[in-house]
Design a protein that fits this description.
Elements: H1 2-25, E1 38-40, E2 44-50, E3 56-61, E4 68-72, E5 78-84, E6 89-97, E7 101-117, H2 119-122, H3 140-145, E8 149-156, E9 173-176, H4 186-199, E10 203-209, H5 221-225, H6 231-267, H7 290-296, E11 306-310, H8 319-337, E12 343-346, H9 356-368, E13 372-375, H10 391-405, E14 417-424, E15 427-433, E16 439-441, E17 449-452, E18 459-460, E19 462-466, E20 469-473, E21 482-485, E22 495-497, E23 506-507
Parallel strand pairs: 1-7, 7-10, 7-11, 8-10, 11-12, 12-13
Antiparallel strand pairs: 2-5, 3-4, 3-6, 6-7, 8-9, 14-15, 15-20, 16-22, 17-18, 17-21, 19-20, 21-23
Helix pairs in contact: 4-10, 8-9
């Protein structure tokens, strides 16, 4: 009897082992490699996946049916290779043959852009019902009805956290149409639409974004550990983890109380306030490095043209630290992709919660980090809503950088950027770059300039344009030493260049700001 049971158990184990081995033996691909995908044109693009150890995988792209690529899975079943792509076009198939065959259909060759950040990148074209924040873009119904662009595709990465770098993500490629575009990242979509309309090229977008997330969430752990200015982020997080069980119990009580109060307010026709926020814990999206692990690392080394970014609101209270953290994150991504790809980002729009120092940190990043560019949004904010609806202007201004820098088009791509200053008696003369078409005071006299003497006390200033310079003064400052422009949470400046692009806020001094000591 025992012998029979042993034989039966052995047989079951053998069957399960064989079954699991046969499953593993099949060629498997990352989620990115799927129908409707876009591959970067005219590159040796990266392909990778999994198979049985030692299994041979043969790959063929129908854009060049005479050429195949052969790769062998290593001892752990991993394989990685490259295949050369042709000029932009399609539709094509991409075939993988091992113990099984996978055929990917409707493939386009074009330009692939990674799109990341927090809620203003996540913000979709259409409203999300009862979201409280995703209200849809300006004229969203019209934008949706006109969204038939079969050459624009978006892969949206499922929002997850992970303690260690992951191998894959969840998501699928969607073709732009009135039926799908409502869920697209609006900034990414309008960026792609502008590129597509101006170049005729297919555009692939990989949207990996999550609302409320700080830059450290998108940065590899080793980068944070290696810099003394970033270590407090990890220390603070560890302390939060230790307090999490107790904090979570308190949160549950607070949430129950809020829900009861909210129901009472609704019954009286009143609108309840915001629910209490969940404390930082092991699965919180504000956790440092965990979004990098779950939503960036698995995308590497998918071949991309470049990246666009809309984030910074969640780092505004540590803006001085962001001066270093933001460039470190960009460098981290470029190192891990082994590619110094262009990186274009949106400067934070005016809002009551956003310190001017966060815009300065972004401006300094543009000025110091190669192959970066910044879309200024001082004329496209909402003082009461951190999620302004005019995402068209964001995408279009980001696209100007790409069109000029990456697609060879002759056009203005940046508004005026402060370059240098000179004191001349009781006035300060400012020089700017990007003054194409001259400097322009839109809708009246220049405003949002302040000036200070050595006492660091800034007062409102008068300013006028003289050619490609701006002269600033105040009758109350006899010996000026510094000027600031648009230096407040909700600026409304009106300095533009002749191309209609606004000047970035700036300051000429380096005096310590409000966030200097915040880490």
């Amino acid at each position: 009897m025992k012998s029979r049971k042993l034989q039966l158990a052995t047989g079951i184990i053998f069957f399960l082992s064989f079954f699991s081995l046969s499953l593993f033996a099949d060629v498997k691909l990352p989620a990115l490699f799927a129908d409707n995908m876009v591959l970067q044109q005219q590159k040796a693009v990266a392909l990778w996946g999994w198979a049985s150890p030692g299994e041979t995988v043969v790959i063929q792209g129908s854009w060049n049916p005479a050429e195949t690529v052969t790769v062998t899975a290593d001892s752990e079943g991993n394989w990685k290779t490259n295949i050369k792509t042709a000029k932009a076009g399609g539709l094509y198939t991409l075939t993988f043959k091992g113990n099984n065959t996978i055929i990917i259909n409707e493939v386009l060759l074009g330009e692939v852009w990674l799109c990341s950040g927090q809620s203003n990148m996540h913000f979709p074209v259409a409203p999300i019902e009862n979201s409280g924040w995703a209200t849809g873009v300006v004229n969203y119904e019209q934008e949706i009805s006109g969204a038939t662009y079969p050459a624009i595709r978006m892969f949206t990465v499922a929002r997850k956290v992970a303690d260690t770098p992951q191998q894959d993500v969840e998501g699928s490629w969607e073709v732009s149409s009135p039926q799908t575009v409502g869920d697209f990242s609006a900034v990414a979509y309008f960026f792609a639409r502008e590129l597509h309309q101006k170049t005729g090229l297919p555009i692939g977008l990989i949207n990996t974004s999550w609302g409320g997330t700080p830059a450290e969430s998108w940065t590899r752990k080793e980068i944070l550990e290696s810099d003394a200015d970033f270590v407090p982020i990890l220390t603070r997080y560890q302390e939060a983890l230790e307090k999490y069980p107790e904090a979570m119990e308190a949160h549950k009580l607070a949430l129950a109380s809020w829900q009861k109060e909210a129901e009472e307010k609704r019954s009286r026709g009143e609108k309840p306030g915001g629910a209490p926020r969940e404390p930082i814990g092991p699965n919180h999206n504000k956790s440092p490095y965990k979004l990098y692990n779950a939503m960036i690392a698995p995308l590497i080394p998918y071949t991309i043209k470049g990246a666009i970014w809309y984030q910074g609101e969640s780092n505004a209270d540590r803006a001085y630290q962001y001066r270093k953290l933001f460039p470190a994150m960009i460098s981290n991504w470029r190192q891990d992709w082994n590619q110094e790809f262009p990186f274009y980002f949106a400067q934070i729009a005016p809002h009551r919660s956003q310190r001017p120092e966060i815009r300065e940190a972004q401006l300094l990043t543009m000025l110091s980090v190669p192959k970066t560019g910044m879309a200024v949004l001082t004329d496209a904010g909402d003082s009461l809503d951190i999620h302004p609806q005019n995402k068209q202007v964001v995408g279009e201004r980001l696209a100007l950088w790409a069109l000029a820098k990456d697609y060879g088009q002759k056009l203005s791509y940046s508004g005026p950027v402060y370059k240098s200053m000179k004191v001349k008696k009781d006035k300060i003369i400012l020089k700017f770059s990007h003054t194409e078409g001259g400097l322009v005071a839109k809708d009246g006299a220049l405003k949002e300039f302040t000036i200070a003497g050595a006492d660091q006390n800034f007062v409102p200033a008068q300013a006028r344009i003289e050619g490609k310079k701006v002269v600033v003064w105040s009758d109350s400052i006899a010996n000026p030493v510094a000027v600031r422009f648009g230096w407040k949470r909700i600026p409304a400046p009106n300095l533009y260049n002749g191309a209609g692009l606004p000047a970035s806020p700036f300051r000429t001094d380096e005096w310590q700001g409000e966030t200097f000591a915040e880490r």
